């Protein structure tokens, strides 16, 4: 079954410290991977995406992620966290919808809540 | 370019009632998807519409339905509301459809069922 696991429910980092949020996926074929961020009371904003090619992808707001097929991981990183990064981050895979021959949807992990301390 | 617009932002309904939520996609986008977000279940796919046709449906009961109009605007309807339907309903639009399609999300409609 296609699934996404985010092992860390909450992460607390100090402002200026580095950040790594973990994401593991289970998918038979080459996955289409995404990281989205959700600020309180808001919708989701795309941080970055991986489809193919270079396994290190750059996104907005200084975020990057590395695709590691051997580990089935797509971890999100940032060298120096800012207070405005406090939000909930979701990893997702573009996956085939069950009982659908041609339909796809985003299959999300449960999210990691990021708290930034002064 | 205007983003995805969802109306209303907040709704309070009583058990047994029905509700209709609206989503206006980004201009030029033909695909609209709906997701339900709850603290317990996280983000779950409801359905996707492309060019007025429902392409995919998630694992939700028939009380959840939707449609898409010729201008790509979409509505979703929930009939016979239950307390468990309380959630943030997110609409996402994209230019086309498929696993690699970048989806742009609205701010959501917060539905509370009492």
Structural notes for this entry:
The complex is a heterodimer of chains A (118) and B (114). In chain A, strands 2, 5, 6, 10, 11 and 12 form a six-stranded mixed sheet that branches. In chain A, strands 3-9-8-7 form a four-stranded antiparallel sheet, with no helix packed on it. In chain A, strands 1-4 form a two-stranded antiparallel ribbon. With 118 residues, chain A is mainly β. In chain A, a hairpin with a 5-residue loop joins strand 5 and strand 6 (44-50). The mean pLDDT of chain A is 91. Chain A has no helices and twelve strands. Chain B has 114 residues and is mainly β. Helix content of chain B is 0%, strand content 53%. Chain B is globular and about 35 Å long. Classes of the chains: A mainly beta (118), B mainly beta (114).
How are the SSEs ordered, and which strands pair?
The complex is a heterodimer of chains A (118) and B (114).
Chain A: E1 3-5, E2 10-14, E3 19-21, E4 24-26, E5 33-38, E6 44-50, E7 56-58, E8 64-68, E9 73-78, E10 87-96, E11 104-108, E12 112-117
Parallel strand pairs in A: 2-12
Antiparallel strand pairs in A: 1-4, 3-9, 5-6, 5-10, 7-8, 8-9, 10-11, 10-12
Chain B: E1 5-7, E2 10-13, E3 19-24, E4 31-38, E5 42-50, E6 53-57, E7 64-68, E8 74-78, E9 87-94, E10 104-105, E11 109-113
